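Subject: two folds for Thursday's group meeting

Dear M.,

Sorry for the delay on this. The cluster queue was jammed most of the week, so I only got both jobs back this morning. I'm pasting them in the order they finished. Each block is the input sequence followed by the predicted structure tokens. Could you check whether the formatting survives your parser before we put anything on slides? The first protein is the one we discussed after the seminar.
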Amino acid sequence: MGVSFLSTIPPLLPLVPVPSLTTTTTNRYPSYAVTIRCNKMEIDATAEDEDRFCRRDILKCAGVTIGMELMASSGLFVEKASAADLIQRRQRSEFLSSVKGTLFTAINGNVELLPSLLTLALNDAMTYDKATKSGGANGSIRFSSELSRPENKGLSAALNLLEEAKKEIDSYSKGGPISYADLIQYAAQGVLKSKFLASAIRKCGGNEEKGRLLYTAYGSNGQWGLFDKQFGRTDTQEPDPEGRVPLWENANVKEMKDKFVAIGFGPRQLAVMSAFLGPDQAATEALLATDPDVSPWVQKYQRSRETVSETDYEVDLITTLTKLSSLGQQINYEAYSYPVQRVDLSKLKL
């Protein structure tokens, strides 16, 4: 007697290991001959017992085959998603590299604005309110009504410098204009890198080549990874509320500590960010050293800056700026990426 089942999944049959096979087994199916041809499965049964090669066995085989097909298909989707992710990462990395280059040129051509660029980044982020989760490093300081506040006095020249840099950056961006929030924080990064490098050069007696080698070998340049991953800050469309940022040059240490505590920082972060609190870092640190909570940290970072690598000072400063520059932000990790133009192979001439 012959039994035949029509396959309901023709494309999957080629996945069966043996496309055409006649076997006779001595275990469960002692006398059955199974032949697979094209889109049919034919069974010749000659056994006299009731142990039949039944439809359930066929469905089990089909289920395994479908599972294999689904796994193979999902693998293709994963590969495509991974490829798209790698393309976006490359696009963002290349754009960020160009942004840093533009900012480096602007910063080093206007060294008198370095302290103001740091304070600009600090004050833009210091509007963060922990209770309401509002404010933060959102570019609000670009609005004239906020920039004209007493705590931001003298920062307009720094913002004007970044405005000019932004025009150049936007001209070569393929993924849209850079946000002010990103621009301001990456300018602060550029200032710190410039200061770290200048310190290394001084320790090498002014020899720029040796200073660069020292900074490359022992400096903190490799500590910026997390900061760079936060590329994609979003701009607010209105000024942040008033009264959230102290007037640093008139504030006492307690007022400074209170503000840093309010955003989730402490005496350690206040001490390490002394360069952000005004044009005269030495005078700021002398004031901070009068407070018993802040003084040990001021002394620690002063000692660190006397060492070859400045490791404690530079690493803690990078860590603090990384946290500060993300306050109030939901980073868009697809920002500045863009569609890749497809190549029409039909138009290629061989």
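Second protein, same layout:
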Amino acid sequence: MSSSQISEIEQEQLIEKLEIFKIHGRDKHGRKILRIIGKFFPARFLSLDVLKKYLEEKIFPRLGRKPFAVLYVHTGVQRSENFPGISALRAIYDAIPVNVRDNLQEVYFLHPGLQSRLFLATCGRFLFSGGLYGKLRYISRVDYLWEHVRRNEIEMPEFVYDHDDDLEYRPMMDYGQESDHARVFAGAAVDSSVSSFSMRCIS
């Protein structure tokens, strides 16, 4: 199934159901956080136009005119399932209103992995103008995230903590020298992603 096989309304409902984008909590500077769960992004099911419309109508207005931060959770992302493509990323970024882009102060990138670091190091400056690349802050563990974000205000899917536990016992996963495919990518279908979204919010 592709985006051409489900209606625009169904695509919008899918975005809502999965809670891919959620304005949720604040960082240590008191800035609102836009949390993005990469694993829940169903790239094969969404059209670029529907995604941009959703952001323009449901997300950007709620960010207001004040500085904010993005928390992007990269845990469990698969290129074939969750990656919209380089051209789509650039189109989404270009569609962000200038005032919203200017108010973005920091991007906390949780569980980046070696491949995403290399991709951003080689393509990030080309893809993202306006200094966004310089606002990236890589966060390798959830515990390190709490140095920047108010932990009692942010909810995380259980698989994020599970991946953290895996990294403690298999640290070479951080450098791409050991695969976490069997553990993290099992059951990556949309419905199973939703059902596994049990929360563990630590105060």
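Two things I noticed about the second structure. Confidence is low (pLDDT under 50) at residues 175-203. The first helix runs from residue 8 to 18.

Cheers,
T.
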